[in-house]
Amino acid sequence: MNIQLKRIYEKANKNDGQRVLVDGVWPRGVSKEDAHLDKWLKEIAPSKDLRQWFGHDPDKFNDFKKKYKEELKEDQRKEAFNELKGMANKKKLTILFATKEEDYNHAQVLKNLLK
């Protein structure tokens, strides 16, 4: 599988392959046209409560990963994850996210689960 992570604020590139946004809320300041998305899987995002509790705190990341993996077992998120997995099996996939925190976020968890 060829999977990369990228902030949605970075310019789209012809080498991105399929571009999938995995945030539950549309990122500020980005038009849908400029995003060049193939898919917006908002259903796969962590719950609001989990996201707020985590706050991209590196000290909470291990607990966040466990809790998020549990959320991914829920029907709607599981379906979205399976769709993302199917896309990753077909061709290059770029998972897009908005947060400035590039190392401690749900996109990292998704990438690791897909591999």
Give me a quick take on this structure:
Pfam families: DUF488-N3i. The protein is α/β, with parallel strands linked by helices and 115 residues long. The chain is built from five helices and four strands; from the N terminus they run E-E-H-E-H-H-H-E-H.
Task: Describe the 3D structure.
The protein is of the alpha/beta class. The protein has one domain. Helix content is 41%, strand content 14%. It is built from five helices and four strands. Strands 1-4-2-3 form a four-stranded parallel beta sheet, covered by helices on one side. The protein is globular. The chain starts with a strand and ends with a helix. The relative contact order is 0.28.
Structural key phrases:
YeaO-like, 5 helices, DUF488 domain-containing protein, alpha/beta
Major beta sheet, strand line-up: 1-4-2-3
Task: Assess the beta-strand content as a share of residues.
Answer: 5-15%
Largest sheet: 4 strands, parallel
Number of helices: 5
Distance between the terminal alpha carbons, to the nearest Å?
A: 7 Å
Rg measurement, Å: 13 Å
Number of strands: 4
The poorly predicted ranges are none
Helix content: 40-55%
Query: Could you state the order of secondary-structure elements as H and E?
Result: EEHEHHHEH
> Judging from the principal axes of the Cα atoms, what is the shape?
globular
Mean pLDDT: 95
Quickly count the domains.
1
Structural class: alpha/beta
